Amino acid sequence: MKTRTHAADYYRRILSAQPHALKRLDPFAAIVKCHGGQEISNDSGPAGHWYYVIVGAVRRCLIRSDGRQQIVDLMLPRDFFFVSDSRREETIEAIAEETVLASYPGGRVELFAERDPQFARELREVAFQSLTRSREQLLILGGVTALEKVGSFLLSLDKRAFEASGQVELPVTRYDIAEYLAVSVETVCRAFTDLQHLGVITLAGKRTVKILNRGALEDRAGARLPDRRPEPMALSRTAA
């Protein structure tokens, strides 16, 4: 099935409707369309670029000492991430076939932050997003069993959605999940099967997981992850 491609104006309208911390720089943002597996360029100098995920998904990867790839950050819609040429040991690439980003020049972002204290505070909030994602991944990787890790991963995706509906859309493949959780893809598939047999989840499609028993999933995850959905009032202040 051929992926439908929209014009840049379509994604700019989506961007304009979404409240986020760099809202005042939207007029200077470039719309960047990526296909699955495409690397996000890091040749923009030390000032770099800030990116905002409009649709799709992006991964930040490192190569482990044993040669295996490890996903160290997973960026989903409404997430920010930073790219510069000072972090050449990393690879940042689009995962979903239709991934569209808003790109903000790092130099302009820094200049705006120097002139506007309120914007500087909002920029720090953006930087804290990355730290929060890293903390959540550490909590997920801290699971003892595959069921704990996969369960925590599903709960994290549900909590990262704007509204937790109990129906999780997987933005990545089982192979990507395995690289994110640092386990084999066979282990991931087996964990999904076991959670289905236990009546905790069901597959509502190839990339859709429905949580049937959230309490049981949280118990098997071993810990409740912090709720990352932004508060409406905070969004209104940022967007103003």
From TrEMBL:
GO terms of molecular function: DNA binding
SMART domains, per database record: HTH_CRP
One Gene Ontology term from the biological process aspect of the record: regulation of DNA-templated transcription
Source superkingdom: Bacteria
CDD domains for this protein: HTH_CRP
UniProt-recorded name of the protein: CRP/FNR family transcriptional regulator, nitrogen fixation regulation protein
Ranges in coiled-coil conformation: none
